[in-house]
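> call design_seq(struct)
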């Protein structure tokens, strides 16, 4: 997935809004660090229907209002974040993506904590992360001795061209989810994401983007750029 400077939002029109057949939301965040107070610098998500077929996607850089953190790991520089939306700007869209879908992530607890750090200042409380599916935890049961996403992809022969970028991480996590499902389908137990609560009403549409932004929209079902 190529990534030009500035912000990139990729939305597959089919399945993004309120397709109740979509039961899984595979997501990933890149952050300013690994601590409990890290901020999101990139968010990506892939919607899967009950059969695991991609039906929609979303990806955006996020301006944390601070240094982007370990550029040597995620490759996101301060210049790439010029013109990107803040977390507040995309919070409503993130909320809408999770609505009624089972959250899936590799190291779910960490990614959920990073999202909570974004929502807390807005007065919005996230539901419990334990309702979701952690592919790292499941992989340790199904593929003993292999836990990192890079190692899993290597073992399973999954194409993983750009580790530690949200889009490629999501695509790889979805592939791992399918691999786990093919071996131990009963392990995929998760409940749809419960409602977010809080006093601030989140907007439900992508806000007007600054002139420096780049927007990519596709109606091709399952597209994930």
């Amino acid at each position: 997935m190529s990534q030009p400077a500035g912000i990139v939002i990729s939305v597959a029109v089919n399945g993004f809004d309120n397709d109740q057949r979509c039961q899984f939301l595979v997501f990933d965040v890149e952050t300013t660090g690994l601590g409990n107070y890290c901020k999101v610098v990139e968010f990506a998500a892939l919607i899967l229907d009950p059969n695991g077929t991609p039906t929609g996607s979303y990806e955006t850089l996020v301006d944390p209002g601070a240094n982007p953190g370990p550029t040597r790991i995620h490759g996101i520089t301060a210049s790439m974040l010029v013109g990107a939306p803040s977390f507040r700007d995309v919070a409503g869209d993130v909320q809408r993506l999770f609505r009624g879908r089972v959250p899936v992530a590799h190291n779910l607890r960490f990614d959920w904590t990073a999202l909570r750090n974004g929502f807390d200042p807005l007065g919005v409380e996230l539901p419990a992360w334990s309702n979701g599916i952690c592919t790292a935890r499941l992989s340790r049961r199904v593929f003993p001795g292999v836990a990192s996403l890079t190692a899993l992809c290597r073992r399973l022969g999954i194409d993983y061209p750009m580790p530690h970028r949200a889009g490629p991480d999501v695509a790889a996590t979805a592939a791992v989810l399918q691999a786990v499902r093919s071996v131990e389908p009963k392990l995929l137990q998760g409940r749809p994401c419960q409602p977010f609560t809080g006093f601030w009403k989140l907007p439900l549409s992508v806000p007007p983007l600054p002139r420096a932004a780049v927007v990519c929209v596709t109606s091709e079902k399952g597209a994930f750029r």
